[in-house]
Amino acid sequence: MNKKQGNNLPYSYRENDYFFADPLIQSFMSEGNNEELFREATNENNLEASNCLDQRFREFYLRVRLIHYADKLARLYVKSYGEKKRKHYAELTLDTSVQNGSEGETSLKDLYPHPQPPLVEETAISIEDILPTKKMIQIYQSFSKQKQIILHLWVYVQLSIREIAEVLSCSPQNVSKLKAKALSQLREGRDRR
C-alpha cells in the first residue's frame, strides 16, 4: 500500500500499522478482493464480510503452513540424503560392517589377518641398525628404556601414538611428547656429525 492510500484507509489500518506491515498479512490482503472485504467488515460493520474474511484467512494461513512444512521436509530430506551419500562415498569397502557370529558387528578389515613383515636376516632388528652416524647411535643409547620402546613400536611395529600409549599404560600426550623429543635429539646428532 502506498502513502496516498494511507489517508483513505480505515481507522484500524492506521492504528495497527505494525500488524499490517507483516509480510504474511500484506500477502493475504493482496490476494483477490480481501482488502475490499476488510474495508466492508471494518467500515460498514458487515458481519457477512467479516465471516467470509475470517474463513479466507484460515484457508490462506493453512496453505502457508503447508507450504512451510513441505519446504522444511524437503530441506531435511535433502540434508539427510546428502549426509547419507557422503557417508557412503567415504566408507571404504573394507570398512563395511558385517555380523561376526557371537562377537557382534565388525568390519571386513578386522576379519583379515594382519600381514607380518618377513623376518629376513638383512632386515634391521633395532633402531640402532638404521641410524647413519655414531653420534646418533650414542644419543639413542642414552635414551631411557621407555623412549627406546616408543621409537621401536613406532618405527617397526608401526603403532599409532594411541596404541603405543595403551601398550605402555600411559597417556597419548606423554608418548607424543617423548617421541618428539627423541626424534629432535636424533636430528641434532645427525646435524652435528
Q: How would you characterize the overall build of this protein?
A:
By secondary structure, the chain is mostly helical. The chain starts with a helix and ends with a helix. The protein is elongated, with a radius of gyration of 38 Å. It has helices at 3-8, 11-15, 17-20, 23-30, 34-43, 47-90, 108-111, 134-142, 145-155, 161-168, 172-192; strands at residues 97-99, 105-107. The protein has a two-stranded antiparallel sheet with strand order 1-2. It has eleven helices and two strands, in the order H-H-H-H-H-H-E-E-H-H-H-H-H.
Summary keywords:
single chain, about 190 residues, mainly alpha, about 5% strand, elongated, disordered N terminus
What characteristic shape results from the CA principal axes? elongated
Instruction: Please summarize the sheet with the most strands.
Output: 2 strands, antiparallel
Indicate the mean pLDDT.
78
Strand content: under 5%
Oligomer: single chain
The helix-and-strand class reads: mainly alpha
Strand order of the largest sheet: 1-2
- Count of DSSP strands: 2
Summarize the helix and strand pattern as letters. HHHHHHEEHHHHH
Distance between the termini: 87 Å
The amount of helix comes to 55-70%
The stretches of 5 or more residues where confidence is low (pLDDT under 50) are 1-9
How many DSSP H or I helices?
A: 11
Q: What's the alpha carbon Rg, rounded to whole Å? A: 38 Å
